[in-house]
Amino acid sequence: VKKSGAPLLECLECGTKYDVQYMLSCPKCGGLLSVIYSYDHIKEEIDTKVLASRVPGVWKYRELLPVSKDADIVSLGEGGTFLHNCPRLAREIGIKKLYIKDETTNPTGSFLDRGATVVITKALELGFKEVRCVGKGNLGASLSAYAAKAGMSCDIFVPREIDIGKLYQIVAYNANVKLVDNFKKALKEVERPEKSYLVTTTDPFFLEGEKTTAIEIIEQLGWKSPNRMFIPIGTGGHITATWKALNELVKIGILKNRNVKMCGVQVQGYSPIVDALRKGQESMKPIEHTRSEGLELSVEHPPYGPTALKAIKDSNGTAVEVSNQEILNAIRLLASNEGIFAEPAAASTIAGLRKLIEAGELDKNEEVVCVITGEGLKDPMTARKFVDRISEIERTIKHVEQRQLVIRIGETKERILQILSEKEQHGYGIWKILKERFGYDTKIPSVYQHLIELGQLDLIKKTVSRSVSGRPKRHYYSLTEKGKELQKILEKLKI
Ligand SMILES: [Zn+2]
What we know:
Blueprint: E1 8-11, E2 17-19, E3 33-36, H1 39-45, H2 48-52, E4 83-85, H3 87-93, E5 97-102, H4 113-125, E6 130-134, H5 137-150, E7 153-159, H6 164-172, E8 176-180, H7 183-189, E9 196-199, H8 204-210, H9 212-220, E10 228-232, H10 237-251, E11 261-267, H11 272-278, H12 305-314, E12 318-322, H13 324-338, H14 344-358, E13 367-372, H15 380-409, H16 411-422, E14 425-426, H17 427-436, H18 444-456, E15 460-466, E16 474-479, H19 481-494
Parallel strand pairs: 5-13, 6-7, 6-9, 7-8, 10-11, 10-13, 11-12
Antiparallel strand pairs: 1-2, 1-3, 4-5, 14-16, 15-16
Residues 11, 13-14, 16, 26, 28-29, 31 line the site of zinc ion (ZN).
């Protein structure tokens, strides 16, 4: 360990400290690494006034980031996102004060850009020219963009179930995409070429970028904590970083206290942290699934599970699991009330908030912040589900219109359609059936008039003209597709 005042890497397991360098895990025990700073030095260097004079964004909090002062920053304008006051949604949900931290407006549409700007800047500073990553879609999209900006070559390994919008992004940024069938295996087995910086979901520099969401929230609230923060838990990195940031702000003296309950949100089927809390277990037991682990929050074994659990416990917070349907409802609620279109993982925080309110576990006077981590168009399949609902409405409207047509066409025409639904007929045959089976006293020319009108409504068509046993040729009629549909509705209406 060299320079005093410089940041260090610290093992989260055994506490050993190392100089800042490229290191995937603790060489001694294999534990995850975290960056620590000389907080007393930083306390002297910056205060809220200094920060207020700087432009918004991740690099505003540069003293709390692990890059040297003269590093070339690779930035696309990440961070500095809005903290929206959301009275409409708050009223709808039933609380007094709700803020949304809208991370959908980051350069690639996800909060991970905050991590990418730091890790790519650091990789360049350490002399790397290539970057490689095994990650879910958002991480891949974000790193590809920043690698492109930095002029670095970039390999991205993503699960085959990747949301299609994210895949388009990665391809557009010209990264080398590798779709993997077994994501868990890829996480363990993808190798690092010597010249490559391998970004994993547990990269300590990446996490430093992620923590700036929390610093911004605190600054936007006038250097005060909200009562509660909702954060999605996939790897557990974001909630870990958030809690770290709050503690650091206290250490450098610009936040008085961190009285904020951290609420982690997990998706049903992937909720080891919720389980641990529910059962009062000290540690988290990973979930075992045979099915895919492709989606953002579908993480069986959150690498930051222990630190996420600690953040929740230390802050007197909680964790909540939500279903896919609850998430879908939350996407609609957020978009229609506040104009923010979130991807499922992001909207999970709104779903989690609703669930806690319904369970009576949240005081309605609390000031709540929900972090919305990524934008909705990244996952067009989910967006499509809303459109499907609209087509259902369209079908209903069509149905009603057809019923009105039924009312318009009258009883004789209805009978003719019924007759033609059994088999094709000529005009004389129809007249005969009308008379014999239904007792209609209709003239033959009026039957032909009905046939002309049904043809104009596109409900019947002429099929063939045949001569039967030497008589003059006769036109045969049958139902069109539209006629068949209407006939089916007529049948239903009779019941
Ligand atoms: Zn260690």
